[in-house]
Amino acid sequence: MIASSLPELPAAFAESARHLETGVPGPAFIPLEIILQEKALADGLAGLLRRWGPGDYRAAVSLWTQGYFGRFLRPVLAYGLIHDIWFSAKLADISVALSDISIPVRFALKQARPASLQQHLSSIIHEHAQQVIARIVDLTGTSERLHWSNASFAFHRYHEIQRLWPEAEVPPAIAGRLLELERMIASDHPLFYLTRKVSDAESEHRLMRKVCCIRFKLDGLKQCAAACPIARQACRSRGRNVDRREPMPPLRLPDSAQKRVDVRGPARLTNPSDHRH
């Protein structure tokens, strides 16, 4: 059964729905736990460096989790908040299909057992995001806070659901789930507090990161998005002045990709609760 056999998502989420399948995974799918091992992750990072590098190894790792959480969280939250259809977030229940550069682009998911919205959200945080980030940090030596920021930005795009209808016309069931979610995300967790909504002259509401995703450190992705917390000129300046004294990360890239990896090495691991701003 593919995602199109589920209830349709609004047009704004139609593309993200194509990243999801349900039922028995087809032959193109690989257990997620295999993709989160050293060899498979190295292949994906090498693919990103070929596509968007050369540049800083850490930026490629960040780009990996940006894409991963964007493709996973957007349809999962959309089906949950709009249709109250939730999927198991346990790593063992998920398989993925890879792109031509060996990064996850489609997810085969199992529907979750009935539970409260709080229980589903807790599973997404503790049984999925936390586990994925821990494995990425362990293999690459990159910053835990950086990857929580990527997950946080993808998560907060659920706000787009609120803009699908005029405020007075949001279906009551959806409005209730959104209100319940808003109450829960007031808690002190990096998935919630590392992204915020801001208003400015260009947009009534837009998302702003609290941690730079460092994508500007890949030669093919120099342009920063509007969500960056650092002025664009400052980003470019920082890219030219990176400390090169730190060692290379523990994960070993294939020889063909190793030549493209900048010798500046990973950022030190930080606790996501440290240095909040």
Q: How does the helix and strand content classify structurally? A: alpha+beta
The N- to C-terminal Cα distance equals 44 Å
Q: What does the main sheet amount to?
A: 4 strands, mixed
Please give the share of residues in helix: 40-55%
Q: Which strand order spans the largest sheet, edge to edge or round the barrel?
A: 1-4-3-2
Alpha-carbon Rg, integer: 19 Å
Average per-residue pLDDT, rounded, comes to: 81
Overall morphology: globular
- The H-and-E topology, N to C, reads as HEEHHHEEHHHHHEEHH
Low-confidence stretches: 238-250, 252-277
Beta-strand content estimate: 5-15%
Number of domains: 1
The total strand number stands at 6
Count of alpha/pi helices: 11
Can you put this structure into words, describing what you see?
- The protein has 11 helices and 6 strands.
- Helix 3 (38-52) crosses helix 4 (57-83), helix 4 (57-83) packs antiparallel against helix 5 (117-140) and helix 4 (57-83) runs parallel beside helix 6 (144-156).
- It is globular and about 50 Å long.
- The chain has a 4-stranded mixed sheet.
- It is α+β, with helices and mostly antiparallel strands and 277 residues long.
- The chain starts with 13 loop residues before the first helix and ends in a 19-residue tail after the last helix.
- It has one domain.
- Residues 238-250 and 252-277 have low confidence and may be disordered.
